[in-house]
Design goal:
6-stranded parallel β-sheet, 8 helices, about 20% strand, elongated, binds NADP nicotinamide-adenine-dinucleotide phosphate, EC 1.3.1.106, oxidoreductase activity, Precorrin-6x_reduct, Cobalt-precorrin-6A reductase, cobalamin biosynthesis
């Protein structure tokens, strides 16, 4: 059985490793956003498929699909649902659970990056943005005059306002480093997405420890009717049941 694994996440890499170890023919697909991606075990293809029609055509080479893309990769998830339905391929969504606010924390939930920018502007003047580089432009109108520190994996394509600092770094992150990052910047608000998982959780602990409020963008809706699991073992079980 040939598995197409839509990746770009730690869970996708873990699943690829386990499938290869079990002798399953798996190809991980990466979008190609990052210049030097962490490559998973097994075969890898890099770059977009060319929308729903391109993916549907590509599915001729695969029997089942696991969509393990990031919770905020909504276009790829929607395309996978449409293409798999059209091509008659079983599709599983592997999505890590969202984060839960610990007691004593100060989280401000919003539904969009624009709302996050406005809430951050209300809460502070020295925000730390950890929402990725692709969404940075949404923060410029509300935070152009603020002392923003934006942490990204790869340099953004927009030129950021004067007074903003961009640091490039890639997780997983440790609590000590997160405390140093927020402390040295004298951060008074942190903005994040509900990515879930452990790789980027220490910043939430650091903010709580320093009494810094967090603005958190809620997850976008997922395509309806797609079976979903929340950990790698459940995805492995699904693949073996399909085979
Ligand atoms: P997106 O907005 O949902 O997708 C935009 C387009 O990128 C898709 O239509 C597709 O192009 C291509 N694409 C996305 N994921 C792909 C994959 N795994 N393999 C092949 N093509 C892919 O996605 P995004 O939010 O830009 O995320 C891109 C990748 O980064 C994803 O693989 C995701 O898992 C990873 N990632 C995203 C985030 C985030 O916050 N969004 C965070 C960490 C990692 P075509 O239409 O041409 O097929």
């Amino acid at each position: 059985m040939r598995v197409l694994l839509l990746g770009g996440t730690a869970e996708a890499r873990a699943l690829a490793e386990q499938l290869v170890a079990s002798g399953v023919d798996v190809t991980t697909s990466l979008a190609g956003r990052v210049a030097d991606p962490r490559l998973p075990a097994g075969a890898v293809r890099i770059g977009g498929f060319g929308g729903i029609d391109g993916l549907r055509a590509a599915l001729a080479d695969y029997d089942v699909v696991v969509d393990a893309t990031h919770p905020f990769a909504t276009t790829m998830a929607a395309n996978a649902a449409a293409a798999c339905a059209a091509a008659g391929r079983p599709l599983l969504r592997l999505e890590r659970p969202g984060w839960t606010e610990p007691a004593g924390a100060s989280w401000h939930w919003v539904d969009s990056h624009e709302q996050a920018a406005e809430r951050a502007a209300e809460l502070g003047r020295r925000p730390v943005l950890t929402i990725g580089r692709q969404q940075l432009a949404a923060y410029v109108p509300a935070l152009a005059g603020a002392a923003v520190l934006a942490r990204v994996v790869q340099a953004p394509s927009i030129s950021v306002p004067l007074g903003w600092t961009v640091v490039s770094d890639r997780g997983p992150y440790a609590l000590a480093g997160e405390l140093a990052l927020l402390g040295e910047h004298r951060a008074d608000v942190v903005v994040t997405k509900d990515s879930g998982g452990e790789y980027t959780w220490p910043k939430m602990l650091a903010a709580a420890e320093l009494g810094v409020p967090i603005v958190i963008v809620a997850r976008p809706p997922r395509p309806v009717g797609v079976q979903a699991v929340h950990d790698v073992q459940q995805a492995l079980d699904w693949v073996s049941a399909e085979g």
